Amino acid sequence: MNLESILQNAPQPIKKTWITGTYEEGSHILFSGEKNDHLYFLTKGQASVYMQNQEGVMMNVNTYYASSIFGEYEVFNPQETSQSVIANTDCQIIRLHKKHLHQWMQADFDLTMYILENFAKDVVHSHQTTSQLAFLTIKERLIVSIYSHDQVGDLDTLTKEIVQQEVYAPIRSLNRSLAACQEEGLFSYRKKTFSVVDPVRLRKIAEAISPT
Questions:
Q1: Please, are residues 31 and 94 in contact by the beta-carbon 8 Å criterion?
Q2: Fold designation for 3-133
Q3: Contact, 195 vs 155, CB < 8 A?
Q4: Which fold does the domain 138-209 belong to in CATH?
Q5: What DSSP line would sit under 134-185, residue for residue?
Q6: Model-level pTM?
Q7: For the chain (length 212 residues), average pLDDT per consecutive 10?
């Protein structure tokens, strides 16, 4: 059973606990490190999740489309905090508190199976994504890093030292890649500040590079 059917067949007492919301393109649905007690149902739009791996590389590890769910990691593991989830387009969301989610799961086997299958797919996808990113060139990792920080919204505070740690490259190699990207007009680095010059082309290249 698909998510649309599951939502349509939800018990009325559960539907009354739903919290609906809309998010404009580019806005945060969840912030990194935020405590989250809700499961999110994405009913319209597209959103991406960003995280830092063990090497400190900021990257887009997954993209959610309409009829997707997210937030299950935090709901079932109270010690877990959220990653950044940002709306790629205008999005419509249904939020459900974990207390009501547990009640619904006890009464609906289809919902339980859907969540378990989604969880398993996300784990496999995230592992594949981080593995594939390890084979990118320094320039490609730099592009993914700058694009990801721009999407998260912290590009103005990003330092070259942080980028070097994320890209995991010697400073000379990083500088060569940075110079190449500036010559291509993707982004600039002046007065110790990064800024995007061509957001459309940067996004196109970053999305083509990223395995998500």
A1: no
A2: Jelly Rolls (2.60.120)
A3: yes
A4: Arc Repressor Mutant, subunit A (1.10.10)
A5: TTS-HHHHHHHHHHHHHHHT-GGG--HHHHHHHHT--HHHHHHHHHHHHHTT
A6: 0.69
A7: 91 97 92 92 92 63 89 89 89 97 95 92 73 79 90 87 80 94 96 95 89 57
